Sequence to fold (272 residues):
Amino acid sequence: MQVMQDKSTIIPNNSITFLGTAGARWMVISQILASGGMWLNLEGTQILLDPGPGCLVQVAKMKLNPALLSGIIVSHRHLDHAADVNIMVEAMTHGGTRQQGKLFAPADALDSEPILFSYLKKYLEGVEVLQQGNQYAIGNISFTTPIKHIHQVETYGMTFTTAKHTLSYIADSRYFAGLENHYGGQLLIINAARLKGDRPYDHLSVPDVKRIITSLKPKVAILTHFGMTMWRAKPWLIAQQLSQETGIEVIAARDGMNYELSRLEEQVEAPE
Fold:
């Protein structure tokens, strides 16, 4: 009898893989960029964050193994962050043959018109509701949801803590005074959907991003979740400009990019 060998990709420990960098409806609908979310491997604990449309396809292309996941986190119920949550729960739990992992999501993503099919709940070790100011644990790491964002639905960013690093993810939000005061750490991942802040949309623009980076002074900031105006302006050029203006290394994420947290040790603290 021939034994099938596991040919899955080994994700480096303490790293983040960007399964997709598309944000807002037109980029997601066009699939100019993929919209799969992020795969975190922190202290050996693997977490899927915001599995948007095509997440499963990107996971398969990259030969990642969903059976290694310990949890799935959804920042909010919009399709570009949650469309593939059901199939990824199926994948994480081996089609329900192994009770495994937890799902974390805001209350309005689990109540009326829930993002999770009811039959899948029993496949999971549990479902936890994200709330402002709470702390949660997955495997070897913990994370907090420090502040409720201003968005069309209940939305939270996160700050993750490992043995050596603290990193923050600022999810979709309109900018509001003090937003940045609730986040911190050596690495900042920020959804930068819009080029200009000329209209009152519930997404961060480049001027908002600059203000946040300047205030927080992370060692590295990674931009992702690009809308059409950002894509047309070439996010890598925007990141280069922000690096020059802030003195912080700013990177525009790319589909499939893996960022190892060990790179943070190479960074010099930004001058005051």
